Amino acid sequence: MSTPMRRQYLGLKKQHPDAILFFRLGDFYETFDEDAKVVARVCDITLTSRPVGKDVRVPLAGVPYHSADGYIAKLLRAGYRIAIAEQSADPADPSLMQREVVRIVTAGTVTEESLLSAEANNYLAALARGDGLASLAYADISTGEFVVEEFSAGDDRVVQDALLRVGPAECIVSDGDDASQAAVRAAGLPVATIESWRVSPGRAAELLTQHFGVHTLAPFGIEERQLAIRAAALCLAYLEDTQPSALTVLESLRFDGGTGYLLLDAVAQRTLELTQSTRGGGVQGSLIEVLAQTQTAMGSRLLRQRLVKPLAVVEELDRRLDGVEFFFREDVLRARAREILRRMPDLERLATRLGQDSANPRHLLALAEGCRLTGELQELLSDGDSPLSGEAAQALATLDPCDDIRKLLDAALAEEPPANLNSPGVFRLGYDPELDRLVHTSTNAHQVLADLETRERARTRIKTLRVGHNNVFGYYLEVSRARSEEVPEDYIRKQTLVNAERYFTEELKALEADIYGAQERRLGLEKQLWSELLAKVSSASGRLLASARAVAVLDLLSALAEVARNQDYCRPLVTDSDAIEIRAGRHPVVELYLQRQGRTYVPNDVRLSNNEEAVLVVTGPNMAGKSTYLRQVALMVVMAQIGSFVPAESAHIGLVDRIFTRIGAQDELAAGESTFMVEMIEAANILRQAGPRSLVILDEVGRGTSTYDGMAIARAVVEHIHNAPSLGCKTLFATHYHELTDLEQYLPRVRNYSVAVAEEETDVVFLHKIVPGGADRSYGIHVAQLAGIPRPVLAR
Length: 796
Ligand code: ADP
Ligand code: MG
Fold this sequence. Notes:
This protein is α/β, with parallel strands linked by helices. It is 44% helix and 21% strand. It is built from 26 helices and 27 strands. The site of magnesium ion has 4 residues, from helix 21.
């Protein structure tokens, strides 16, 4: 590596010290020094070295540019960011390459299909905190979504809950905002910082007004909200630094004040296994596995968004449920709609690409297909016997097949266009007369070449003479070595091979110039036509995006209906009352897994209200089904509040605004504090945040210690929650301490339930049936027996 190039490298590296610098050298991205060591280790490639002067070598690791995505993905997953330095010939001195960093790839700013998951959003988030408040902004530059939330956060926990819920790929804070930085790190997310002066109150607001081209932030509902302004501005400032071309896709900002939702604390998010199972961490075994019958990527993302942020507004939920019910009733129509949706491309990301100028010919081809299918869907749903209702009707009204755009694309694009504009053949014959003429010249030239070959064979009487082409030498006449003595005078030697000689003639040379000229002009013209086409299509990106989101809604509603049909769910009645009353409810995930083994789930009822049965104490032996029962109730609340049908015969859900969960187990304990302290702090935390519409799930609180301590803790926690003056939240409490059934005697709003057990001679059978009344013993011996403990031990 020559010294000027080394200087160039070091200069760029100095500008981007916290990124791995991918330095383009021909067909490779090379990394040097410490970067090279990281790349070699993370990507599992060989570390070599390269001389950079006399007797000096530096570590080197390179990856081929055409397969860079895979390596970039590995580095992103390992928490690194990558600065991409591309090369271009220096106009002044073509022998020296210029290089500049064109982009910084970070986990939250990728747009490559290969680096994104189709089913989940990829959020870039920013956190700002101050004065008991916190604001979290998040943007997905692959879909154009941009949201900012503000909430009170006296407790660090609330910030953790929000970070876990949004699940961003990375999170930005301003430097010096140590509280935010600590929170992001505690959530295990990559942190990026922006200098705080760039988001000072005045500048932050200016950044936003300039970006949106507005005079005031009032239309976004945040003009008085300094933290929300700062968080949103952090996102923009970060994109300016890393991926400026993506800024255009963030066309609007939605403020979300956090009311009207069902919020889940971090433990509830984890233990209810909504989008991830606790074992394995994948979707398998989570609620989303049951519900994900969506057919499109957009629908899958919408499901995920709704699942982590259920609603608590009756009218809105009724609109959603009306939509699901329509598809639930219309089996034939649903099947047909799903068949159309199955073929639907990711219109949302395609439309967003238009705004970002990163669409290629195949993207536009997919877009045309998406428009066509949208038209089919619109026709199908408009022509049915019964009209759509609720959210489905609204989505149908928003569908826009964008016929003008589709017709334009149909007329313009070839049937199988190349993936990029470096190859010809993007456009269809008849789209542009000048292009047709150039195409004709090059195809015609091939005919002329064939004619020339025939003529030369006749003239030389060499039957094996042929016209050939390669990228280095261009067109040539090839004659085998044996006959090469016989070629005419006017043949000029071009290249000698082992068995053949290659020649050209003046005529062939002229033809070659014609062909090359036409091809070059063709590529140039195609590029020009492409930008014109893209400009026209991009002007419709807003319409396309709105329609794509309507498709997502229809996909989700019909998917939920499909699940409800197949799994025999019912429509829940959602109201503002304080009661939860479920008849013959089931746990959707456990039920699915039992079904796969040919077994059936035992349904159970529940009744909860603030003033009567506010605290249910569920006793029963280990493995009886207590935890499953608690989660089943919480899951049905969540399902009802995303607008899904629920696994029950009937369900009345008085809307819940928060779900808190505490699980008693050793591994949930913080080191250094006594079990009692920890569990009481947890209970106090719940009390600080819970209200009359909260649902509290306590599973075996007090288990992680000795029996007497454990029972004392459990008792104290239940009394505490029951007696809290302002509260009246609904609580489900499961414990294997059957002694706790006496709580019912002195706490008026406590009710005892237990899991029924059938004793058959010496065996016990768990019936998984929840019945009124407490358990009288714990059946520990029987559980030990079931677990295969040897007989002498049992006897002892
Ligand atoms: P506990 O919390 O009482 O120890 P779990 O709730 O963990 O028990 O349940 C133990 C197992 O029993 C579960 O893994 C599940 O397979 C089964 N089970 C629980 N409830 C039911 C039910 N209602 N119907 C069928 N099987 C159930
Ligand atoms: Mg349990």
